[in-house]
Specification:
Layout: E1 2-4, E2 8-12, E3 16-19, H1 24-29, H2 35-50, H3 68-74, H4 79-89, H5 102-116, E4 124-126, H6 132-143, E5 156-160, E6 163-169, E7 172-175, H7 183-188, E8 220-225, H8 227-230, E9 236-241
């Protein structure tokens, strides 16, 4: 069972939290930007809203394959505006999107816009916790012919010519072309050389006796703290859920 996150918020300067504006109308009424920046942001969001990837007539001055930074520069957007567009709307964890093709940023912004619908937020989450995600996946998998082997250990990952062809357990072999697993499985199966450390995700849980200031006392929100403001390699994402 899914329900909506009630709002997306953005930290400005690490001091105040503001609702993320994602439509031209919201841009004009947002307290996140000054008067002139509101108008620039409105024009940018209108251009993205009207952009059709397969219709060059809608592109205007936007060059889809040029770096996203070039597109953002054309609209003379401030760093703070670029931060919330890239991190709170497009949901990039760092500023690498600036060097990527503009079309990638456009697709992510449009996805956010399309996901809004009549809801206050584009996000949904399992009402009974993260266990609802694999449960939903298992149902879709079963409908599409997936086979489940429950309570089976994997003792070996099988390869032929350097490619995965199956997994072996006490009950026999299950053939496959791809294995998606926790790295500990690969290490346990003697494939430590195939595990590459990329990055570490740090999580923590905080229990508060009050709503976070600036979030309009909504029971569930997402707050983005962008990379640039934190002076870190990646930004932070905070999820809040108020117990009723």
């Amino acid at each position: 069972m899914l329900q909506n996150k009630e709002g997306g918020f953005f930290s400005k300067g690490g001091l105040k939290i503001f609702k993320v504006p994602v439509t031209p109308k919201e841009a004009l009424s947002s307290d996140l930007m000054g008067l002139f920046e509101k108008r620039r942001c409105q024009k940018f969001l209108e251009a993205i809203q009207n952009f059709e990837e397969n219709n060059p007539k809608t592109h205007g001055d936007i060059k889809p394959n040029a770096p996203a930074k070039d597109m953002l520069k054309k609209y003379d957007l401030e760093d703070n505006t670029i931060d919330f567009i890239g991190h709170a709307v497009a949901l990039y964890t760092n500023d690498s999107f600036m060097e990527r093709p503009a079309i990638e940023l456009i697709r992510k912004i449009q996805l956010y816009m399309d996901s809004m619908g009549n809801n206050p937020s584009p996000f949904i989450y399992p009402i009974f916790g993260l266990g609802g995600i694999p449960e939903g996946f298992s149902r879709i998998s079963a409908v599409n012919g997936g086979t489940f082997m429950l309570n089976n250990d994997i003792n070996e990952i099988l390869y032929e010519n350097g490619k995965v062809v199956g997994v072996k357990g006490p009950e026999g072999i299950a053939k496959c072309s791809t294995v998606i697993c926790d790295p500990t499985y690969a290490i346990r199966c003697g494939l430590k050389e195939r595990v590459k450390f990329v990055e570490r995700i740090i999580r923590c849980i905080c229990i508060l006796d009050h709503p976070i200031p600036g979030t309009e006392n909504l029971p569930s929100v997402q707050i983005i703290l962008p990379q640039r403001q934190l002076n870190r390699k990646n930004g932070k994402c905070i999820f809040t859920q108020t117990s009723m």
